[in-house]
């Protein structure tokens, strides 16, 4: 009597997401944002610094999206989105353990700007990956 074993297709097991790369680049993104933006806060007025943070979240996010997409062959936009989402979770965790937690960080920026900056980080990462994907098809 022979038995057949049903095997799950590899696609169902392997999502194709390179999680190590996603998490590593997300940490690198947050490190760069802190390294660049925190020191210039003293040099700029608070209003100008808030603008710099918004621009930095998008521009550095875009660069991180390009970077993550260079090392993958499929689902580039997803990889970019995930880098932005993981980086945002890292940032929220940092805010959560800081004095006053996330409410204090949101109050410093104002809740709408706080949410916008986090959305800009994610959007920048996703758009950078999409741009890399379109460039690789040409």
Specify the number of helices: 6
Order of helices and strands: HHHHHH
Mean of pLDDT: 89
Whole-number count of domains: 1
Strand segment count: 0
Residue fraction in strands = under 5%
Q: Uncertain runs with pLDDT below 50, 5 residues or more?
A: none
Oligomer: single chain
Q: Which structural class best describes the helix and strand composition?
A: mainly alpha
Biggest sheet statistics? none
How far apart are the first and last residues' alpha carbons, in Å? 55 Å
Tell me about this structure:
There is one protein chain. The protein has 138 residues and is mostly helical. It has one domain (18-137). It has helices at 10-13, 19-40, 46-70, 76-97, 101-109, 111-137. α2 packs antiparallel against α3, α3 packs across α4 (76-97) and α4 (76-97) crosses α5. The mean pLDDT is 89.
Task: List the keywords.
138 residues, mainly alpha, 6 helices, 79% helix
Q: How would you concisely characterize the structure shown here?
A:
By secondary structure, the chain is mainly α. The chain has helices at residues 10-13, 19-40, 46-70, 76-97, 101-109, 111-137.
Task: Break the fold down into its secondary structure elements and pairings.
Blueprint: H1 10-13, H2 19-40, H3 46-70, H4 76-97, H5 101-109, H6 111-137
Helix pairs in contact: 2-3, 2-4, 3-4, 3-6, 4-5, 4-6, 5-6
């Amino acid at each position: 009597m022979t038995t057949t074993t049903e095997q799950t297709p590899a696609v169902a097991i392997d999502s194709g997401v390179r999680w190590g790369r996603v998490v590593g680049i997300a940490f690198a993104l947050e490190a760069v944002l802190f390294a660049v933006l925190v020191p210039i806060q003293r040099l700029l007025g608070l209003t100008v610094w808030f603008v710099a943070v918004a621009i930095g979240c998008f521009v550095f996010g875009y660069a991180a999206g390009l970077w993550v997409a260079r090392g993958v062959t499929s689902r580039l936009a997803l990889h970019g989105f995930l880098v932005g989402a993981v980086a945002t979770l890292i940032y929220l965790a940092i805010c959560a353990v800081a004095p006053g937690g996330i409410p204090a960080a949101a109050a410093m920026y104002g809740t709408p700007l706080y949410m916008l900056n986090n959305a800009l980080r994610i959007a920048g990462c996703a758009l950078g990956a999409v741009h890399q994907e379109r460039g690789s098809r040409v």
